[in-house]
């Protein structure tokens, strides 16, 4: 594992098996607390590549976005009533 910048790492390379599977390096699993049975979300951008994120982190992020949307909606609603 190489830390290229504070909090940014290179964990090495992995090979894709015949069934499309990869093994996440142990250092990465340890660093990000990935355990057997965890759900991971695979994101893709045709120009930037693939990202793998723990599902619970994205769930928390999505909830914050939705809470922010509710705040904005209430704020706009309140301004219309003034």
Order of helices and strands: EEHEEH
Mean pLDDT across every amino acid position = 87
Structural class: alpha+beta
Beta-strand residue fraction: 15-25%
What is the helical fraction, as a range of percent?
Answer: 40-55%
Number of helices: 2
Assembly of the depicted chains = single chain
Low-confidence stretches: none
- Provide the gyration radius in Å: 19 Å
Count the beta strands.
4
Strand order of the largest sheet: 1-2
Query: Any idea what the shape is?
Result: elongated
> Largest beta sheet, briefly?
2 strands, antiparallel
First and last CA, distance: 57 Å
How is this structure best described in words?
This protein is of the alpha+beta class and 82 residues long. The protein has a domain at 1-38. It is 40% helix and 23% strand. The chain contains 2 helices and 4 strands; from the N terminus they run ββαββα. The chain has helices at 26-31, 55-81; strands at residues 2-5, 8-10, 40-45, 49-54. The strands form 2 sheets. The protein has a two-stranded antiparallel sheet with strand order 1-2. The longest helix is centred in the last third of the chain and has 27 residues, at 55-81. The mean pLDDT is 87.
């Amino acid at each position: 594992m190489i830390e290229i910048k504070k909090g940014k790492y290179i964990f090495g390379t992995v090979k894709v098996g015949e069934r499309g599977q990869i093994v996440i390096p142990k250092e990465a699993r340890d660093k990000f607390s990935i355990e057997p049975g965890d759900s991971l979300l695979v994101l893709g951008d045709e120009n930037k590549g693939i990202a793998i994120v723990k599902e619970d982190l994205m769930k928390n992020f999505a909830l914050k976005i939705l809470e922010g949307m509710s705040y904005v909606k209430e704020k706009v609603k309140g301004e219309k009533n003034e």
